[in-house]
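User: Predict the structure for this protein chain, please.
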Amino acid sequence: MDSDNRSELPFPVLPEGTVTFMFTDIEGSTELVKQLEDQYANLLTDQRRILREIFFRWNGQEVDTQGDSFFVSFPRATEAVAAAVEIQHALAEHTWSEDVEVRLRIGLHTGEPLVAEEGYVGIDVHRAARIGNVGYGGQVLLSETTAALVVDELPEGVSLIDLGQHRLKDVHRPERIRQLVIEGLPAEFPPLLSLETLPPGVVGDQPRHNLPSELTPFIGREEELVTISDLMQEHSHRILTLVGVGGIGKTRLALQTAAELVDVYPDGVWLVEFANLRDPDLVPQFAALVLGVSSHEVTEGRDVGDILTAYLSDKKLLMIFDNCEHLIKACAGLAENLLKECPEVYLIATSRENLGIPGEKSFAVPSMAVPPEKTLSRDLENFEAVRLFVDRARAALSSFRPTSSNSESIINICRHLDGIPLAIELAAARVKILTPEQIANRLQDRFQLLAGGPRTALPRHQTLKATMDWSYSLLTEPEKNLFMQLSVFSGGWSLEDAEGLVQDDLGRRMDILDTLSNLVDKSLVVVERRRGLARYGMLETVRQFAIDKLSASGDADNFRQRHANFFIKLAEEADPRLRSFDQLKWLELLGYEHDNFRAALTWLIDSNQADEAARLVGALGWFWFLRGFWKEAWKWLNKALNMAANPKPHWRAKALFRTGGLEIIRGNLTGRTELVEEALDICTDIGDEEGIAWCLNLLGQAITFHKQDLDKGDALLSKSIELFRKLKDEWGVAWSTRYLGQIFELQGDIERSINLQKEALHRFEDLGDVWNVAHSLYLLGGTFRDHGDFDEAKTQYQESFSKCKLVEDDVIAAHALQGLGMVALETQHYREADEHLQNALEVMQRIGDENCASRVLESMSRVAQHNGDYDQAMKLLKQSLRGFRKINREDLIVLSLARLASLANVLGCSRRAACLIGAAEAYRNSSRIVLAPVHQKEYEGMMIDIRELKRDETFEQSFTEGFGMSLDDAIAYALGEIDEI
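Assistant: Here is the predicted structure, written as structure tokens:
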């Protein structure tokens, strides 16, 4: 860039908002350089001076200059047009040295680009540049947007003519281009140099391509276009096959790529469409006819392949072999021959499987990007699947618009159709008679709904079912059978899963690897590699088609049962390994298979198989707990327990104590200990000592931490440890020892508590149970925190958090963050405390941990109170109390009433404070609630503060009224649900 009259700033200060871009360059500048040699620099100096003076006059801001080209932005479109007109007049009237003619082509486009540090970015910049590139010297071209803004304000002696729609290189939406007709200057020019009007090439008298004019805009696929274009321009890849399931958009992507590569191939770009050809012997002849090889040569008895290769031997061109899957061998043979004999021939093939020839590069065409479930309506157009739906819906119904009310349905349509372009286009066409909500609700029967495509489309593209039927018809019988059977998997499968599904009654496994590989090759099965393991799956639309085929075969129930049996065995195999050195491996495996477990449970419950349903939920209970699927676990466990038939005692007992245990750990005692007690009775009757030990542990926790009966809790946990030792279950010993240590903390024996907790920690370390190591560190941190050793508490919490990363567990991580937040709160680092607590609350509310979420809300209220936001502090305390009421945490309900009394006292509401503390004291005494030492200290401090109120008759009366309230009335009064007592 030259320095004359330029700012010293590294980048210009650019106008923002809606701006009009101008791109200019000199036509034939290379020839001028050759003609003028050293004098060309003088010409360039004159040209720059003339243009910059005009830019300045019309408020143009120079963005970039390279050689003879300018990139300029204008705040108004009318100013850009006025500048363009003046530039063309000035250059035509200027006397140039050596009697040459300087002809400038100018392109204008208006948009709303982003302004980055280095200048403007966005598609509007590219569009403006491409418009300028397709013109000729002396010509001024305008985009449709710019033309609409200036049509009523054109300079005198200037008019507009319409040059029609044009496809531009690297721009994926056709542009209607207008030309300025300037009085006194040339107005007639050759056809624009766009992709639709390329000048004749060197292939006879024909155009340089036979690509069809697309009638609908090309949407999205920017990354794919760049990748494919780059691959085709690498010398190491002369054939690229675009593979994918039917309707994924292979043909359209190939055509768009080819259109953007026309100028790379001197002898053109040629589409050979095989969709309607059925005879493989005619493949070479068909390609020859497309390329214009004379019919006389073809009928002379010479081999058509030889004629074709001779014709192409000295040409550089690109051929598109479209829809090869039904002629795969013939297309592969022709392609291989052309690549061997014609060194400058390049190929793009589209097929549902690779051609399988040497040198072939494969590109799996992905689905279009779909939005997450809860995407805001304003963000919808960031996703290409949505843009496609909206564009095609508007074509079907001009009044269609995405709105806040239909955006969720549009999201559901795009997600449920897997981002498959054909399916989305067919769904969009239905807006003529259905709302998006109705379309979304009918997608369960998508193959009936998604019909009625364009009459001119290939028959198999007129309905989604026809597209899938076409792919299915090309399969062999073994491939069809496996394709149907694999549809029972949900969320994918491994090779071992598939082998287990199709094993025969004698236990022999079919050799399915080759058949599965064929389904992958034919794009009906997708493969994904996760940490070195291959998993397979189907797009949901493909899977629904396979399910329909399996149902029609009459074999669906058989394979659903096989599927359920396989995953029951897998869950039972995994359950004990989740408490071993293999914990991480099995957690990961069960995570991959979670959708399959859900599918199996649905089948077992729907078919009333009580034993198998109870077996599966019992085996999965620990996995659900570790991974934080608490709400889902509660749903499945209760469904299994509430079936019409009762499972066998052993399976029912395990499901019962998994259910009750989950609720106890959540702190919810509303009838939940009854489940564990029932399980204990069953295990005692059938002599299941392992089950008895589990039940004793859970009941010991409940009685200790929620009923405050420390002696009974001690006895139950001690008995649990005794049984686990008898069974030589080191993990069970560690599990119960940890909670026994917490009893000693409540009894005030801190040293023994810490020793027992550390003993449990070391046992878990020896067993390789990383999750329980993290949990033990968290509990140890709580013990140190409760007794004022904040440095040690912080260390334990941080170690716990770091261990959680190893198991990718956000549940214990959230608890560790809660602990760190509490330490920060106690040490008066309030901003840090709020950050930790907010992050912890998000996870706890998601998994349904009412107990810990309510604790976090209470801590957050203290932060808000410190910050002087008393309204927020009161709101958070009430939320906390609601949570404790929901799970019947009597000790923490008492503490919450006292905290609300203390806040009322701070706010000067002495009557309310007295009433609430009276209610708390009454319930604490009547229920003999034992608070944890740290909570007892806090409670006593609040009592002292409130009792320092002036002891007048009003205080005594309010305290007495509160003391006489029922607990339900006291909670309702505290929450503002009743105004008076």
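The chain has a mean pLDDT of 85.
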